[in-house]
């Protein structure tokens, strides 16, 4: 192997080992927590009126009578084959259930991060530029409220006001029952599927109905994401605006707008990418409280219902998906970090 290829191969090998160890740790933590919590998955299957012999038989069939280390090795083998077990509630493979519910969470989280990043970054820049002024105070108060107010309470109040009182938005769920069975689930993303249906001649009414249902939970998640992103953007921009290159740019006569948006924000975007990626991962993990309040049939509601019914296969499978999302978006943000900051490529 040539001397030019060795550093690249070494970096790739280190990268793959890091991913493998991280995922192995995620599997181990998820598995052992699932085994030590005071919930018996056997009772969830056979019921509390089953005899001791029936319970013992099912426990043996599930391999729960084996030592923990042996159970873990069996679990690793099944996960490697894409087998997360069968859900007690639905009697379907857990992976099939996750494929069914995840598009709802993906749609909701994507709308939330688009609102959060699309408004949070400009507001954070504006607050940094107007440091100490009225705009800065307004953005900081808005962020403080976003951190302080419980999301479930704000969701309930929003439903009462905008749905029950004013009727501006749709209620809980993704779409009205009248349209639910007339939509072909092509992608699982309700807005996309209703647009495809409209293009086929089914009309635009289902699309607007789905949008009205998505507007309130999407805006709510977007607001909480905005609170965090605007605060971090403000902090990063204050740091950049205090740097010497900004003073030099002003001395050269560059316009303030160019200094802010072309130079300071560009450098602030390097750490901000990680902030946005982690915010998106936090929304994709299920947004449990939001999905519960709005009866949104996504991953968060799926995991919550599974936990309440001691469906541990579903809980573990959903938790693994959440962990995998965090790992993937962390890796993506690291890659973007290297692309945006050439100094990190030489490390």
From TrEMBL:
Keyword Cell division belongs to the record: no
Domain (ABC transmembrane type-1) ranges: 102-337
Compartment annotation: Cell membrane
Record CDD domains: TM_PBP2 (cd06261)
Residue ranges of the TM segments: 12-33, 108-129, 141-164, 210-229, 268-294, 314-337
Signal peptide from the UniProt entry: none
Topological relation to the membrane, as annotated: Multi-pass membrane protein
Superkingdom, natural source: Bacteria
A Pfam family matched in the record: BPD_transp_1_N
The entry's keywords: Cell membrane, Membrane, Transmembrane, Transmembrane helix, Transport
UniProt-listed PANTHER family: D,D-DIPEPTIDE TRANSPORT SYSTEM PERMEASE PROTEIN DDPB-RELATED, DIPEPTIDE TRANSPORT SYSTEM PERMEASE PROTEIN DPPB-RELATED
Entry's family note: Belongs to the binding-protein-dependent transport system permease family.
The name this protein goes by in its record: Peptide/nickel transport system permease protein
Species this chain originates from: Roseateles asaccharophilus
Lineage, highest ranks first: Bacteria, Pseudomonadati, Pseudomonadota, Betaproteobacteria, Burkholderiales
